[in-house]
Design brief:
By secondary structure, the chain is mainly alpha-helical. The protein contains 5 helices and 2 strands; from the N terminus they run βαβαααα. A two-stranded parallel ribbon has the order 1-2. Strand 1, helix 1 and strand 2 form a beta-alpha-beta unit. Helix 1 crosses helix 4. The longest helix has 19 residues.
Length: about 120
């Protein structure tokens, strides 16, 4: 059983199939196209050295600080680490699958700038 994600029409039934019945996840061709197009746009912004909040600048009170091209990857790594959590009891397999599915579904919309390879890695997990 496979659920195809567009990023726009995930149902409770789909979540149940994936979380409880171990259905597989696949990206719709339009989702793949949207993710790739957004990533190309992000790469263009970086290549053109444009000022974009959180991409080529810091966050919050550091939003006026420009991030040089050689430090953008470090900024993104630090962003991931700063949002990582690990407090409380472990989630069940179903809870973990549902949580990851919800993140994958949002990223499948193609608005985040994520690389397709990263999104596919999340799906494989």
């Amino acid at each position: 059983m496979t659920v195809v994600l567009t990023g726009n029409d995930l149902t409770l039934e789909d979540i149940e199939k994936i979380a409880l019945e171990n259905a597989q996840v696949k990206l719709h061709k339009n989702a793949i196209k949207n993710v790739m197009n957004c990533r190309k746009y992000v790469e263009k912004i970086i290549a053109e050295d444009k000022v974009v909040y959180g991409l080529t600048t810091g966050f919050g009170k550091f939003s006026k600080i420009r991030i040089t091209k050689d430090k953008i990857e470090k900024l993104q790594n630090n962003l991931i680490l700063s949002h990582s959590t690990g407090v409380g009891p472990l989630l069940s397999r179903a809870e973990t699958r549902a949580t990851m599915l919800l993140r994958i579904n949002v990223l499948a919309k193609g608005h985040s700038g994520i690389r397709l390879e990263v999104l596919q890695s999340l799906i494989k997990m």
